[in-house]
Amino acid sequence: MTARRRFVTLVVAVLLLDYATALVAQVLELPFYLDTWATSTGVIVGGLAVGIVGGVLYSWLMAATVWGTAASVWCLSSTMAALCTWAFLRRGWVSIERPFAMVGSGVATGIVNGCLSVLIYRYVFGSAPASDNTRVFRELLQASLGSSGLALLGASMVVEVADKTVSIIVAAATAFLLRDAYRRARPHHAAGRI
User: Fold this and answer.
1) Exposed (0-12), middle (13-18) or buried (19+): which is 146, by Cβ within 10 Å?
2) Residue-wise pLDDT tens digits, 73-129
3) For the residues of 103-160, what is the DSSP string, one character each?
4) Is 140 exposed, middle or buried, given 0-12, 13-18 or 19+ CB atoms closer than 10 A?
């Protein structure tokens, strides 16, 4: 397979897998998004460009079909998740052989994306979404804290930390399984990338 064909194939896989996961999470009314695991897998398997391009195209597709065009701003979140995955991968933290480091990379990615989410909600949309599946966290925190701003920040942190940690773990496991399957299918290419 040529490098260009491999790149396009991986980008399409990221796009479709993130899209399918987001739709399933929405239908099941899960309080998490779970829509960056394929973006992170793309970074691990194909490099930073695969993750960014696949994640941005996924965000644009969701904006065009589900969220509304203003929500295309969420491509910043997909890009941030790809950048964080790449940075932690380079440090050796995104590995099933280093579970504590992997969880730490998920938590750190979640904190960064949680802050980005708050900025997007405040400055692009003007407020928190009224109808998303994470509303339950905001309502609980607002009842406890009495502040909608603190509730938005707290809910964003809870949701994003859990979401990105699960996504990083799933991405690392998926990449490991893909590499293992590739090595078994092509033993003479065992040292190469997928």
Assistant:
1) exposed
2) 999 999 999 999 999 999 999 999 999 999 999 999 999 999 998 899 888 888 776
3) HHHHHHHHHHHHHHHHHHIIIIISS--SSSTTHHHHHHHHHHH--HHHHHHHHHHHHH
4) middle
- Which amino acid would we find at residue 175? A
pTM, full prediction:
0.88
Q: Is the dihedral of CA 171, 177, 180, 186 positive or negative?
A: negative
Whose structure tokens read 């590995």? Answer: 95
Q: Residues of 161-191 as b/e, b for ≥16 C-beta within 10 angstroms?
A: bbbbbbbbbbbbebbeeebeebeeeeeeeee
Kindly tell me the burial class for residue 65, based on how many C-beta atoms sit within 10 Å of its own C-beta (0-12, 13-18, 19 or more): exposed
Number of H helices and E strands in the chain, helices first, is: 7, 0
Judge contact between 39 and 82, C-beta under 8 A: yes
Question: Is CATH 1.10.1760 correct for 3-189?
Answer: yes
Q: List the chain domain ranges.
A: 3-189
pLDDT per residue as tens digits for the range 17-27:
999 999 998 89
Q: How many Å apart are CA 117 and CA 115, to the nearest integer?
A: 5
